[in-house]
Each structure stands twice: as C-alpha cells, then as structure tokens.
C-alpha cells in the first residue's frame, strides 16, 4: 500500500537511480494496453480520454500498443497545454505515427461515439479539487456510455488516498473555471463529486489506500520501479517539505538544544545545524560556565544559561519551561556522562510529552524510562548496543534488528553506520536505509550536526521522516564536503553544506 505523496517520492528516487519517469510511463502505458486486451478482442473500438498531465501520457503510450484495435486518442485541451515534456513527447509520437487523435477544446464538442472500451486517463494522482471542464462533461459521457471503462491509475475525480471524490474536502465543493452548469445551482451540488465510474483500474507499482473500497476490479502493474527506490532514502524524500510562502518567524520550527558542560562544541554544532536545516529559532540551554563560549561560536544562536558547570536535576523546571516554548528538543550533545546529567535526562523525559531528538550520553537512559514523548534516538552502533539493541554486519539483517528494537522501545531509531538504518517506533513496520555519506565523516562532531538537522526537520514533519531525511541530507552534506576537502573534512563543513543538500531539485 502506498500513498500518493510517497509514490511521488519513490518515483523521484527511481529517477535518481537511473530509471527516469519516461521509462516508467512506457511501462504504465503497456500495462494499460494489456488491460484493454483483457476486456475486448482485437478490432474493438477504444476511446482513450486523455488529460494533459502524465495520466494522459500513460494513455498516449497505451495507444501505441493497441495497433490491433480501432483506437482513438481524445486529448482534452490544446496540445500546447500538455503539462510535462514526457507526455508531450508521447503525444508528438502519436501524431507522427499517424495514430488517430482528436483534440477537444470545448467540452460540448466531445463525441466519444459508441466505443467498446473507454480508457479514462484524464486525471491521476495530480488531481486537485472537483473535476473541472472539460473533464467534468467527459466523466458524465463516460459514465453514460455502455463501454467497459478502464481507468488509468485511479478513476478520474477520485482521490487515490481516500477513495472519496477529489474536492470532497473543505476547499473544493465549488467547481472553478468555465462550467456549463453554473445556471443550475442544484446540479452543481449533485455533481460536485462527479467522477468516472470505472469497471477496472490499472494502478501502478503498489495498491493505493483509496482503491479497495471502489466498485471496480483493481490490478497493480509492476512498472519497473526498483525496490531500492523505496528501501533507500533519496532526493524524492525531500519532496513536500517546502514551506508555506506566507509563513512567519517561528512557524518553521523552534528548536531547543540541551547540552554542553564538559563540551562546548557539540551543542553549538547541533544548534547551528538546526538553523541550516531550516529552523527559524534555535536556543541552547547549557551550563553558565560554557555559555559565553557556545554563544561565541555563532551570533545566530540564543543561549540560555543554567547555573553551574554541569546540567543536573536542579535545572529541570527551567528546562521544562524552555522546552514547552519550543517545537522540538535536542537532548544530549556535549552533556557528558555524569550521574547528575543522567538523572536530569531521566526526569526530564518522564514528564515531557513533546518531541525530542536524543543523542550521545542521553541515549542510554531511554530504554529505562516511561515517557509520553515522541523520541528520535540517534545512536551509532556502539551506543545502540549500550541501549540494549543488537546489530549485524549485513545491512538487511541490521535493518530487521533495528526495526524490532524500535518497536520494543516505542521510539524512532536512526542507527548511524556506513548504511544508516531508520525505523519508526509507533507503527513498527517502516524501515529505511540511507547510504549517503563517506568515511571522512568519522571525524568528531558529525553526529551533533545530524542531531541538530533531525531536530529542525522534526519541527516540520513526522519523526520517521525527519530521521530519514536528516540522515540523507547529513550524508549528502558530508559527500559535498568530501568532494572539496577529502578525508580532511570537519563537522562545520557539513553545516555549511546542509542547505545545498536539502535542495529538492
Ligand atoms: N508517480 C509515478 O511514479 C508515475 C506516474 N505516472 C502517471 O502520472 C500520473 C500523475 O501525473 P500528473 O502529476 O501529471 O497528474 P495528472 O495527470 O493527474 O494531471 C494533473 C493536472 O491536471 C490538472 N488538474 C488538476 N486537478 C484538476 C481538476 N480537478 N479538474 C481538471 N483538471 C485538473 C492540473 O492542471 C494538473 O497539472 C499518475 O496518476 C500516473 O498515471 C506514470 O506515468 C508513471 C509513474
Ligand atoms: K484516470
């Protein structure tokens, strides 16, 4: 089962692995043609109703595989308005190959004839809101025809994630654009959920959550997306993290780093990484003895001094207040392994109900504490063993072990290694590997950078995704740093490269 957003991510990851979308489209179109062959014998008439997105592109390809049929491609809209290069290239191929096409610019001109099969390729996963014209009229004509209806990916007008008509949520009751029905208000209401009523759906790669409930036969076509596109993090994992252009200061994440005492660099690295990973405001709560030094590393940080030279139980009230004013806490960088600090971590987590990244010396407390907090633990393999987890040399074996340990402790784990393993704690079955990064990153401080970056991401997205994306961008920043500095790279090199590593194009 895969959601529309995750599918888009996997598709982009496949492209990064060398399997571009146009190749996937060829497989999709081929699968659609196979479904047509299953419902009608050669010689039958087939009307392919195509939109201007890639859903339509799939059907342009399908038409090439249907030479034994009397097939016509109906393009809804002008060819110049086809939205993607790959769909346009496949459209042009139809014209040069003299496969019958018809351009329908006005919904009133759409004449399907009386086909044996209709292929519904008007809208797929890119649909937003209720069907607009001319797709709306076309859906009505398709539903009125006696043809067997084969939908590409999802019936047009249905949300593949929910099975409900697109636009059945708050914003979309009213159709936009030109609409022949505007003079009949009652009709608008009854038609607002109009969608294609398909007999068959050919969907791609994996089942979609909303399709099972439909009264249609659903088949899943393997379109050649490599398993690695799902198993490993990739650039697609960054999609959808773009921020609201109207957002204000603070809305893109406020992060509190709690650490320092025996060390000053670690909390500073984590905090600066959180800023470079997109957090709006980053505060560091650290002992007063190191506060000036931590602040001295960067004017961008807000430093909150805690009395004394080590963080301990006497700081609980103050840190709780600070934590409540932030979206995410990063707990552990440079904290040290003193008994007082461990006691502080235990009591803080026991009462905390928010989201936290736990790193370094704070990690060993986690398995022994009862907490409502959502934790993302970032151990290396030694620290994992210290927590009571197991590790293995083989990445797949390690993934299975990390997954079951995450389920056992009920928190997200990001276990660092040549292949990082990320496993979700709540639902248990999500596990992903990250293979960005290089041996230059064994230098001190890169773990602090990772913890800070994950902290910033956890203010934007769910813990599992924050951990997966954090591992990916931290490793990518490391690879960019290694390209310049080789194994002489240092942790601050990674911080400066996080923004480039986070670019999703
Ligand atoms: N993601 C993948 O991995 C793959 C996707 N493929 C196909 O690509 C499809 C997604 O393509 P696109 O992202 O181009 O999306 P669509 O083909 O669904 O088209 C979206 C376009 O339609 C218009 N539109 C949106 N809502 C509308 C509405 N309510 N009424 C009228 N017009 C509307 C918008 O201008 C939008 O650009 C999938 O459903 C699938 O068929 C396949 O080709 C291969 C692999
Ligand atoms: K469709």
TrEMBL record:
This is Bifunctional NAD(P)H-hydrate repair enzyme. Its cofactor is K(+); Mg(2+). Belongs to the NnrE/AIBP family. K(+) binds at residues 55, 120, 156. (6S)-NADPHX binds at residues 54-58, 124-130, 153, 266, 334, 380, 448. It holds the Pfam family Carb_kinase. Residues 233-505 form the YjeF C-terminal domain. HAMAP family: NADHX_dehydratase, NADHX_epimerase. Its EC number is 4.2.1.136, 5.1.99.6. Keywords: ATP-binding, Isomerase, Lyase, Metal-binding, Multifunctional enzyme, NAD, NADP, Nucleotide-binding, Potassium. Residues 155-192 are annotated as: Disordered. AMP binds at residue 447. GO terms for molecular function: ADP-dependent NAD(P)H-hydrate dehydratase activity; ATP binding; metal ion binding; NAD(P)HX epimerase activity. The lineage of its organism: Archaea, Methanobacteriati, Methanobacteriota, Stenosarchaea group, Halobacteria. Transmembrane segments: none annotated. It comes from Halorubrum trueperi. Catalyzes the epimerization of the S- and R-forms of NAD(P)HX, a damaged form of NAD(P)H that is a result of enzymatic or heat-dependent hydration. This is a prerequisite for the S-specific NAD(P)H-hydrate dehydratase to allow the repair of both epimers of NAD(P)HX. Catalyzes the dehydration of the S-form of NAD(P)HX at the expense of ADP, which is converted to AMP. Together with NAD(P)HX epimerase, which catalyzes the epimerization of the S- and R-forms, the enzyme allows the repair of both epimers of NAD(P)HX, a damaged form of NAD(P)H that is a result of enzymatic or heat-dependent hydration. Binds 1 potassium ion per subunit.
């Amino acid at each position: 089962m895969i959601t529309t957003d995750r599918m888009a991510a996997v598709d982009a990851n496949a492209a990064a692995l060398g399997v571009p979308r146009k190749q996937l489209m060829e497989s999709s179109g081929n699968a659609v043609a196979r479904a047509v062959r299953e419902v009608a014998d050669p010689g039958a008439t087939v009307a392919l109703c195509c939109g201007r997105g890639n859903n339509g592109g799939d059907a342009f390809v399908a038409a090439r595989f249907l030479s034994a049929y009397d097939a016509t491609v109906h393009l809804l809209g002008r060819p110049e308005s086809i939205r993607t290069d790959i769909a346009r290239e496949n459209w042009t191929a139809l014209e040069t190959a003299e496969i019958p096409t018809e351009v329908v610019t006005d919904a009133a001109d759409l004449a399907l004839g009386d086909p044996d099969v209709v292929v519904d390729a008007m809208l797929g996963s890119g649909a937003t809101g209720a069907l607009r014209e001319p797709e709306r009229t076309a859906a009505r004509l398709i539903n009125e025809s006696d043809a067997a209806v084969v939908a590409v990916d999802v019936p047009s007008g249905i949300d593949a994630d929910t099975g409900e008509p697109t636009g059945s949520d708050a914003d979309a009751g009213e159709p936009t654009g030109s609409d022949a029905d505007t003079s009949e208000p009652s009709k608008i209401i009854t038609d607002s959920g109009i969608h294609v009523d398909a007999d068959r759906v050919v969907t791609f790669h994996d089942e979609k959550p909303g399709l099972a409930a439909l009264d249609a036969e659903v088949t899943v076509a393997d379109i050649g997306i490599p398993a690695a596109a799902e198993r490993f993090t990739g650039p697609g994992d960054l999609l959808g993290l773009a921020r609201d252009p109207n957002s204000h200061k603070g809305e893109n994440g406020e992060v509190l780093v709690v650490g320092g005492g025996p060390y000053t660099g670690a909390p500073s690295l984590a905090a600066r990484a959180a800023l470079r990973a997109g957090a709006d405001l980053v505060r560091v709560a650290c002992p007063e003895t190191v506060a000036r030094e931590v602040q001295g590393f960067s004017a961008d940080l807000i430093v909150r001094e805690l009395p004394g030279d080590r963080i301990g139980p006497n700081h609980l009230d103050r840190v709780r207040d600070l934590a409540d004013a932030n979206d995410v806490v990063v707990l552990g960088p440079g904290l040290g392994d003193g008994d007082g600090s461990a006691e502080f971590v235990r009591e803080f987590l026991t009462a905390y109900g928010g989201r936290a990244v736990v790193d370094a010396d704070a990690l060993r407390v986690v398995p022994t504490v009862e907490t409502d907090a959502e934790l993302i633990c970032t151990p290396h393999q030694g620290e994992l063993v210290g927590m009571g987890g197991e590790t293995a040399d083989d990445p797949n074996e390690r993934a299975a072990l990390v997954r079951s340990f995450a389920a056992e402790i009920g928190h997200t784990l990001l276990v660092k290694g040549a292949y990082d393993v990320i496993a979700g704690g709540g639902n248990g079955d999500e596990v992903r590997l990250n293979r960005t990064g290089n041996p230059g990153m064994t230098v001190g401080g890169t773990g602090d950078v990772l913890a800070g970056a994950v902290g910033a991401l956890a203010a934007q997205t769910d813990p599992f995704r924050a951990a997966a994306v954090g591992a990916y961008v931290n490793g990518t920043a490391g690879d960019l740093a290694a390209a310049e500095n080789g194994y002489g790279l240092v942790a601050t090199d990674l911080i400066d490269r996080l923004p480039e590593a986070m670019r999703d194009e």
